[in-house]
Amino acid sequence: MSETATPLEVLERRREVLLARDMDAFADLFAADGVIEMPFGGPGLPARLEGREEIRAFSAKVDLSALEISDLRVRDVHRTTDPEVVIVELTTVGRVAATGEPLEVPCIQVFRIRDGRILLFRDYVGAGSVPGLDLD
């Protein structure tokens, strides 16, 4: 991502790479000292990942094969008085591969993006709301 990319351009690129399941490209969107926080992550999920390489390592080990994600449907994007901070309401849409069960998982995500890189990604989604995801 270019250092001149706007926060919304970074978020669109994030959507593209996640739908393509390109977890290396996902990790590359973060600053070297970027952070992911998952306050409601639950069992098997770390509450915090620090640094691009820790994010890359965790992203590589998460088994997404149990889920077939077809869309990250953005419901709303909220800009704040801080131009680096964006709040996104979205629903992950797809199905559980083993059962064909439809999947719709709503969440709220808070981002701090500076110079085309994600500094902070705080994900408010509970791991229990993602059926079939194996994190162990």
TrEMBL record:
<dbReference type="InterPro" id="IPR032710">
    <property type="entry name" value="NTF2-like_dom_sf"/>
</dbReference>
<feature type="domain" description="SnoaL-like">
    <location>
        <begin position="15"/>
        <end position="119"/>
    </location>
</feature>
<dbReference type="Pfam" id="PF12680">
    <property type="entry name" value="SnoaL_2"/>
</dbReference>
<protein>
    <submittedName>
        <fullName>Phenazine biosynthesis protein A/B</fullName>
    </submittedName>
</protein>
<dbReference type="InterPro" id="IPR037401">
    <property type="entry name" value="SnoaL-like"/>
</dbReference>
